[in-house]
């Protein structure tokens, strides 16, 4: 008696054997999109550098081509005519004061909304959302009369107060998203050790939420450096004007000196680009993270 032989079932019709592995889609379209976006972002900066090295006649003839001759005369003339030594100093003072004030105001408010029993905290958060969404031009007329009566016009401190008020709502909401994820066990342990609320903020909460404070400081500082609307409205003394108002020195009633304006834009963008390149990893980490590692 012979043992039965085992036979494999025949493959179904249309199947010629084991299925081939599917080919992974090519990544070239994604790289192409990224290259186009990079050129779209970097192209205007490269063109700005080219125009800063040309004269107005060359810019009018070919604004997108590299310069035929390299000359730094535009930078020297723009620095003197725009009084960048004064305006850059004023903007540095404004940025430091704005960052310090916003971090203190928003930090205390965010701590109260995230770790203390605040009555009607939901209404407060809704008010902060509304305050960060409303256009600031709505407050121009009453604020101008108030600042005039208080003697805060033509004052860097008066301009700082405006920046504190306009930046603090968004900064508070951002910092609250960091602090709300900090476990309350740290806070309770510090209270059991006899620490006051201020000591808890400085010694416990601040080290844990420093990425959020760094992010808020960068956003507030960059906004104060680039701000033009409030600066030109409330500061009329040329000795107190920030760097964003230096562009007014390169235009008259009927024309604008494009070469000097491009050189002035390099002066304004240079510190911002360098600061962002140095702190970009911490800045992105602060925007994407929301709690304690």
Automatic annotation (TrEMBL):
Cited Gene3D superfamilies: MetI-like
Keywords carried by this UniProt record: Cell membrane, Membrane, Transmembrane, Transmembrane helix, Transport
Pfam family, one: BPD_transp_1
TM ranges: 30-53, 91-113, 125-145, 157-179, 200-225, 258-279
Highest taxon above the source species: Bacteria
Biased amino acid composition, Low complexity: 1-16
Family of the protein in this entry: Belongs to the binding-protein-dependent transport system permease family.
SUPFAM superfamilies on file: MetI-like
Membrane topology classification: Multi-pass membrane protein
Any one of the GO CC terms: plasma membrane
Protein name as annotated: Carbohydrate ABC transporter permease
GO BP terms in the entry: transmembrane transport
Domain ABC transmembrane type-1 per the UniProt entry, residue ranges: 88-279
InterPro entries linked: MetI-like (IPR000515), MetI-like_sf (IPR035906)
Residue segments, region Disordered: 1-23
Location within or outside the cell: Cell membrane
Species of origin: Jiangella asiatica
């Amino acid at each position: 008696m012979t043992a039965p032989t085992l036979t494999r079932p025949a493959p179904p019709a249309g199947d010629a054997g084991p299925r081939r592995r599917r080919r992974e889609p090519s990544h070239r379209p994604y790289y192409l999109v990224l290259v186009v976006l990079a050129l779209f972002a970097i192209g205007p900066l490269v063109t700005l550098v080219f125009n800063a090295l040309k004269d107005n006649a060359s810019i009018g003839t070919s604004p997108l081509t590299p310069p035929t001759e390299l000359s730094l005369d535009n930078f020297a003339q723009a620095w003197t005519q725009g009084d960048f030594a004064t305006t850059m100093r004023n903007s540095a003072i404004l940025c430091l004061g704005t960052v310090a004030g916003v971090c203190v105001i928003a930090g205390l408010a965010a701590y109260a909304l995230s770790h203390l029993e605040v009555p009607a905290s939901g209404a407060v958060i809704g008010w902060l959302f509304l305050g960060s969404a409303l256009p600031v031009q709505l407050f121009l007329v009453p604020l101008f009369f108030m600042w005039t009566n208080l003697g805060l016009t033509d004052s860097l401190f008066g301009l700082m107060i405006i920046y504190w008020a306009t930046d603090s709502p968004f900064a508070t909401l951002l910092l609250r998203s960091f602090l709300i994820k900090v476990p309350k066990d740290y806070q309770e342990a510090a209270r059991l050790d006899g620490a006051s609320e201020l000591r808890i903020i400085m010694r416990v909460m601040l080290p844990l939420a420093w990425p959020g404070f760094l992010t808020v400081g960068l956003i507030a500082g960059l906004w104060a450096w680039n701000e033009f609307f409030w600066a030109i409205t409330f500061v009329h003394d040329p000795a107190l004007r920030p760097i964003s108002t230096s562009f007014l020195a390169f235009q008259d009633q009927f024309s604008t000196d494009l070469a000097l304006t491009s050189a002035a834009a390099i002066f304004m963008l240079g510190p911002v680009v360098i600061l962002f390149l140095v702190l970009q990893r911490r800045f992105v980490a602060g925007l994407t993270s929301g709690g304690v590692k």
